[in-house]
Each structure stands twice: as C-alpha cells, then as structure tokens.
Q: What sequence folds into this?
C-alpha cells in the first residue's frame, strides 16, 4: 500500500481541525499558522506514518493548539487596549480552566459591576434628578434600609441623602473601581500567560 | 497514596513551576547565533542542551514573541521543496536575552551556593 497519500490525508485532516479552532483570528494569520504547522509535519515525518503519528501526538490536540493561539491573541489585544470587555472575555475563558480563574471572574464581576452602578448614577442624575440617588429609610424599631440607583418613583417617606454630590462621587468611585479592576485583571493576565507558556521545557528522555 | 508517590508528585509540580519562564530564555538564546525554523530550533535544543520543548507549546510561543517584537519571521523556499518559516532575533530580542542571561547567571550561582550543603550531605 502506498502510504504517501494516506499520510498527506492525515496531515490535511489535522490542519482542517486546526483551522476550525483558529476561527476568529484574521484570515491571514490563520493561513500563516496552518502553513507553518504543515511545513513542520512534512519536515518531521515526510510520508512515514509512524513518525507522523508521533509528530501529531507531540503537537497535541488541534483544538488545544488552536486555542493556545487564540488565547495569546486575545491576551495581547486585552493588554494593549486595556479594554474591560476583552479582559472580561479572557477571564471567562480562564475561569473554565482553573479555580484561580474563577476567583478572578468573581472579582471582575464585582469590580466592573460597582463601576457600572457608580458611573450610571453619575450620568443619569442630570437627566432624572428626582429618580437617581441614595435613599435612606428608617424601619422601626431600629433598622435602616438603603436604596441606591435609579428608581421608578422615589420611595415614600425615605430621605435622599446625597443630592447632587452623587455626580462627583459616582464618577470618582466608578473611575477607581474601573481602573483597579482592570489593573488587577491585567496582572492576572500576565500570570496566566507565563503559567501557560511554562507548560514544560523538559529534560530529554527518549521519545 | 503512598508517601513516596505523593513526594514525587509534589516534586513534579514544583518542577513545572521551576520551568516557568525558562522557556522564553531558552528559545531566545537558541536564536542567538542565527535564524532557525521551528523544527531546527527543537532539534538544536534537544541536541545541544538535552531540553525538550513540546511543539504544541513552541509554535504558539514563537508566534507570540513575534507579535511582541522579540523575533522576526520570514518564509523561505527550501531546497526540500516546501517552504520553511525562519525566526531571528530583533534588536529588542537581543537586548532582552542578554538581560535574562545575566540574571540567570547570578541566580544560578546563588542557588548553587545554597544547595552545596544539601548535596554534600548526600554524598557521604
């Protein structure tokens, strides 16, 4: 049996799966990656099926390989743009893989959530001054209830305590929460990336 | 789990940690004296330094280093009949690897000094 077409077929089927998992990257980059992996496989195995099997095993699952490229791309864009959306997307991926990632995701939700509420209060106050604020209500005998944000109607017999101070205060708190959360996530991104790239420089044992 | 296998598991985990970051240094250093393509780089590391770098880790890393400006890449048509993607250090990559190598020298010397009594004890 001629093994050359079979080997070629196996290489192309690996590359097809790799290409699928690279979806989302610019087409030019996808072609470049696929071309490099093809060149690697041809060079390291030629038409020898046994060597090809080994070479494919060393490259690993095409989905995992593709996601390594995609995550690197996402991390790079998140780092250079500092965009909360990209950071959030990255941490969501990370959260599916590790407990530490899950922790980072919780912090991201709390931090960005706080920022969203605080900035929202500051921005909506000028347009609906009677319905945005912090209301405090005494609940007899000795309890208090708080309500912050935009309400449909101001709660009866509650006192709005911030007034127009909610605008500078909201901007300040929002900006601090936004920056602090992004900085925390960026430090996690660096850590995440070095942990990934660590996946092993081994000392040679025969393979 | 026996004491021994839990020990060796802990050491294995530590080893993975210890190898963190070394990968970048090793790859940049291998490119010091000239351009190499991926497989050539892997063989160089295995031959000269007895270090294995899994391809699934190396290729994304090279891609990332190129995006970060530490290496340049170019396609070259080889005599073999298929093109090869060659990597070479950029001036920034050269500066980076010099800094890393200096740090490594000092670091390794300090660790060696600390390890001396441990290893001397074992030899007895």
A:
């Amino acid at each position: 049996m001629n093994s050359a077409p079979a080997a070629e077929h196996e290489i192309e089927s690996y590359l097809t799966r790799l290409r699928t998992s690279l979806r989302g990257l610019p087409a030019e980059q996808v072609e470049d990656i696929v071309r490099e992996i093809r060149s690697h496989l041809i060079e390291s195995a030629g038409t020898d099926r046994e060597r090809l099997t080994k070479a494919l095993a060393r490259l690993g699952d095409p989905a995992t390989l593709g996601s390594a490229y995609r995550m690197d791309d996402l991390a790079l864009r998140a780092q250079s743009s500092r965009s909360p959306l990209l950071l959030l997307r990255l941490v969501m991926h990370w959260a599916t893989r590790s407990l530490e990632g899950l922790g980072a995701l919780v912090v991201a939700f709390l931090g960005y959530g706080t920022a969203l509420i605080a900035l929202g209060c500051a921005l909506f106050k000028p347009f609906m001054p009677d319905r945005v604020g912090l209301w405090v209500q005494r609940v007899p005998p000795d309890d208090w209830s708080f309500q912050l944000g935009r309400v449909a109607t101001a709660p009866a017999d509650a006192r709005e305590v911030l007034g127009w101070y909610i605008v500078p205060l909201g901007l300040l708190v929002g900006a601090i929460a936004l920056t602090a959360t992004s900085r925390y996530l960026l430090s996690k991104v660096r850590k995440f990336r070095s942990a990934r790239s660590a996946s092993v420089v081994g000392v040679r044992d025969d393979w | 789990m026996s004491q021994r296998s839990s020990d060796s598991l802990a050491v294995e985990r530590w080893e993975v940690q210890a190898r963190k970051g070394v990968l970048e240094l090793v790859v940049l250093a291998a490119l010091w004296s000239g351009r190499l393509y991926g497989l050539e780089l892997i063989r160089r590391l295995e031959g000269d330094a007895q270090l294995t770098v899994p391809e699934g880790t190396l290729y994304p890393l090279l891609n990332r280093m190129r995006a970060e400006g530490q290496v340049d890449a170019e396609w070259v048509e080889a005599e073999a009949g298929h093109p090869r993607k060659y990597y070479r250090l950029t001036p920034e990559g050269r500066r980076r690897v010099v800094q890393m190598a200096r740090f490594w020298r000092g670091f390794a010397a300090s660790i060696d000094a600390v390890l001396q009594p441990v290893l001397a004890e074992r030899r007895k």
In short: Residues 1-81 of chain A form one domain. The CA atoms of residues 74 and 191 of chain A lie 15 Å apart.
